[in-house]
Design the sequence.
């Protein structure tokens, strides 16, 4: 399975939804709180070109927002 990183903040409702979706589908992921980690926040912006969360990095493929269809496609679920 691909390496999955979720760049998120604790107050973002879409971040909570994407993490719940991944958990329900037994997908292990690294949750990165960009509100508490400026280095990670800059890494997220460099990868996505976006300041908004959530940003997912699935095996090097970047998804901005909770795009369920694209997440399922990249994870094969």
Sequence:
């Amino acid at each position: 399975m691909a390496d999955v990183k979720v760049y998120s903040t604790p107050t973002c409702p879409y971040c909570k939804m994407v993490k719940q979706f991944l958990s329900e589908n037994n997908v292990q992921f690294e949750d990165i709180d960009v509100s508490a980690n400026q280095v990670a926040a800059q890494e997220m912006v460099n990868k996505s070109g976006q300041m908004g969360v959530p940003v997912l990095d699935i095996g090097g493929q970047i998804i901005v927002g909770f795009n369920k269809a694209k997440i399922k496609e990249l994870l094969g679920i």
